[in-house]
Amino acid sequence: MFQLENVVPWGRSFQDYLGMFNLTPEDLKLSILDCAGGPASFNAVMKKQGKTVISCDPIYQFTSEQIQQRINETYPIIIKGLYQNFDQFVWSPITTPEALGEYRLAAMQEFLADFPQGKKEGRYRNFSFPKFPFPDQSFDLAISSHLLFTYSEQFSFSFHLNSILELCRVAKEVRIFPLVENFTSAKSRHLDFILEALTSRNYQVDIQKTDYEFQRGGNELLKVK
């Protein structure tokens, strides 16, 4: 079974974000924190629409050229993994790993075009889990995809819990996607324990279906208030 051993830069598109997080037009008017945003185009497109998102990721310490190089190094690894685990994914409407790769690259190029100016404006910040230097309840909504739960083998239960509690501190609502581990359709080994820990701390937790599904079974998000 192919598995990513390290966190890799692999950005999603604005349309992906809408599907992954069940984002409505009203949601897009909120103050949003995108955690582990990586080279996604969500921030860039929101800027074009006159909205502001703060994205956090340790990758933002690097230059555009350095991030581009890392993307170039990551691309063949992802394509290889998609072929080796082909049946673990939903190939519709995109039908091949190469077509998916081109789609992802287009989103990442949109990010790279926006990154230098966005970094100057403070929209891209070199912060990472499990601590953020924001005051309590700074944001209406915090979103995070393809790090928590995705890398359950690499990151411990404590890391997951502390990261989610920190998101709940800085935002009124938290949405995390997906709930399956990378390159599999298996639910995260931490999920049940996280739900129990959050509930015991009087957080409201809700698992919601999404229209977005690329990993088979990866069509749910966790909402925490």
Automatic annotation (TrEMBL):
GO biological process, one term: methylation
Domain of life: Bacteria
Keywords: Methyltransferase, Transferase
One Gene Ontology molecular-function label: methyltransferase activity
Protein name (Swiss-Prot/TrEMBL): SAM-dependent methyltransferase
Provenance organism: Euhalothece natronophila Z-M001
